[in-house]
Amino acid sequence: MKDLTSKSELRSTRKKEHVQHFLNGNFEGDNFFRHIYLEHNSLPEVDFEEIDTKYSFLGKEISFPVMINAMTGGFKDGVLINGNLARLAEKFNIPMAVGSQAIAVTDKEYESSFKVVREILKNGVVISNINAFAGVDEVLRAIDMIQADAVQIHLNPAQEIVMPEGDRNFKGLLKNIENIVGKIDKPVIVKEIGFGVSKDTARKLFEAGVRYIDIAGRGGTNFIKIESERNKEFEFSELFDWGIPTALSLLECRTVSSDLNIICSGGMKSADEIIKALCAGADMTGISGPILRELLEGGLEGANKYLQNIIYKSKVIMLLLGRKNIDELRTVPYRIKGELKEMLDC
């Protein structure tokens, strides 16, 4: 029991440190969406007031295809942070995923920072989160804890291997994920945490029964940088550019199957990136770090304004493309240039 308590305290401290390091530095990179070009339409034939951004996700209607993605929970300030994030999700009628619940699955003392999300969101889309090592019973507890509509199974070998106290053995993860998918009656979303999903990995997951992938590519919060800050023995600066840029991951994973639902996250921070992702084949988009920074530095009002601006400017871009709803965005032609084109050609 003492070992369990000590492990929970270590996890709680680590979660707090992650937020502190994120706020104290710039841990974002290039997601490559600047290499995707959308052509201006001078005859849009669209009434701005009639533009409709509603979308169906996990069986529920949401107001815009962006979700507040997994970030935090499991430490003292987690209740306040997740509560405010849930208030934003409720206000804009968009989904929210919580951070890893592993700490609360093993120690009920930390449940409140996750349960607060469902308490506030009520009938909204709420997604639970746990690591790929978790057993079916642990996954079920994570789902039940917040009455989740789906569960994210996160993949984070790049973070763990740099983390001083992280895991070192990643054998059997695919088999475990296949087992979870086969025994859980909720949608299972396999999620990277910031280093992208390759086409080969996406294909293996699809063959294992996975139908939802959150690619979380390079360009967002860089956990190699964050864990390098925490690691007193080694520094990992030569790996700070490691990972698959988000735009590249999206384009390659999209070719695996039309039945694969792709959530595009990883450095998504602006309206033009969200619209480009939707045009390039994303079924959904996700934002995490930029919202957290706005919330912690500008309060709920600042985060509210940030999301309001993104949704409004997304509608502006939709008008400039001559598209009046999300389905029509799928038909927008796009061009690929620069380094992204070179990498795809290779």
Mean pLDDT: 93
Count of runs of 4 or more consecutive helical residues: 14
The beta-strand count equals: 12
Query: Sheet bearing the most strands, described?
Result: 8 strands, parallel
CATH topology title: TIM Barrel
- What is the general shape? globular
Helix/strand order, N-terminal first:
HEEEEHEHHEHEHHEHEHHEHEHHEH
Task: Determine Rg (CA atoms, Å).
Answer: 19 Å
CATH class: Alpha Beta
Strand order of the largest sheet: 4-11-10-9-8-7-6-5
Helix content: 40-55%
CATH homologous superfamily identity: Aldolase class I
Topology:
Elements: H1 2-24, E1 36-38, E2 55-57, E3 60-62, E4 66-68, H2 78-92, E5 96-97, H3 102-106, H4 112-121, E6 126-131, H5 136-146, E7 150-155, H6 157-162, H7 173-183, E8 188-192, H8 199-207, E9 212-214, H9 223-230, H10 246-253, E10 261-264, H11 271-279, E11 284-287, H12 289-321, H13 326-329, E12 334-336, H14 338-345
Helix pairs in contact: 1-9, 2-4, 2-12, 11-12
